[in-house]
Design goal:
The protein is built from two helices and 31 strands. The chain is mostly beta strands.
Amino acid sequence: MGKVIKIILAVLGAFLLVAEFASPLILSPTAGIFINPSSSTNGLYIIEANDNEYIEGPSPISFSHIELDDEYNTEGASVADINNDGLPDVVTGHYWYEAPSWQRHTIRVPLQDAVGIPKLSDHIKIFIESGGEKDIWSKAYPLAFFSFHDDVNKDGWIDVIAVDITSAGIWWFENPNGVEGEWPQHHIIDFSRNESPIFADVLGTGKPQVITGAAETADASGKLYAIEFPETGGFEIHTIEAENEGRNTGATLPTHGLGYGDINGDGLMDVVFGSGEGFLDRAGNPAERQSYDEGGWYEQQMSSDDVRSWKWHVIDPMVSLSQIQVTDVNGDGKDDLISGMGHGRGLFWWEQAENDQWIAHLIDDTYTQLHATEMADIDGDGVGDIITGKTPLAHMGLKDPDEFGTPYLYWYKIIKNSDGETRFERHLIDDNVGVGRQITVTDINNDGMLDVASGTRHGLHIFLQQRK
């Protein structure tokens, strides 16, 4: 009997060792784990800045909440008229939801990617920090992170452009023109590596392009690309790179944070992005710098004979950012930057100073994991507002401060006072859903007011604007 018990204990010990140290079976290894405080007031941020610049204020605007799906199958939501009936539908990359009933239709069968097989200690951490309510296996990511829209094949029906989870690639799905079933899938590019791609007309062609980081192989250094969908159909891929970069781009550049705007005021769109993830160590100090942690912006240049080139400018530090909004915050005639810490704490804006210098300002540090931002004029006063919130379990509950905190969804009104000061007036949209990697702000129900679509671990949701 004693021998049997020893055998059982030996087998159990071997199993625990495998669970703790076995290499991940899917994609890349889970990074080194450390425990950050999970209190909503203890998470820290790396960027040095002044105190919060946000204020609370009343508003006649509220939002009614509609849950389209309680399943977790996307980190983003987009809006487009998929069935040509004149009504905006909601799209996730795996499904589309038909307005106004919000019936779900399949684009492709949902797939999930665990990124790495967690260790035993990860299971224990999740269990303890969630009070025994969470199971780590529910933390896998879906492939569908972002979806954009264009009539790629010029047949009169809107197609879906899906930017999948990091390294999974970019695809376009051909609209079957009203026929049910999975859509034909077409490959665009491999190893896409950015968690905040842009869909905007950066090249000045009159049509938007997908701007994202990508690599030619799994081990290659990443570059920035612009994927164009010309009027002739199909797609064209352009490289955004500068001869003066002189830096180690690393295998995942640009991982976080991407934005566009006319930063130097010359009439051409420039591209700005953040650096690597920039975590804090156990003592609350900035983690060791990574080879690809240099953020900055590409200045677009056009010669007299219409030859396009790019010039690189460093902005440091700009770590772990979500989408970067480019706008003149303080009214001094120069574009500034607004973004949140995707895996840290705080919403910030960077003031453009002289000689390519940038001054960091803290807007709001009361929550963490602001992994998606959008800019739109919510209240219709002619000034863009910031829409952002907390991404639930942005790193599967393993790395970030306060991953189990309240999943807020806010909009911030930018107020420029007569004394020259700028303040951000914060308004709550919801505190049950949060944001994923992509927020869409548009008029979903055709009533002339901007609404919000958000896909997160808590499902797919829309928030319809109402006014008193």
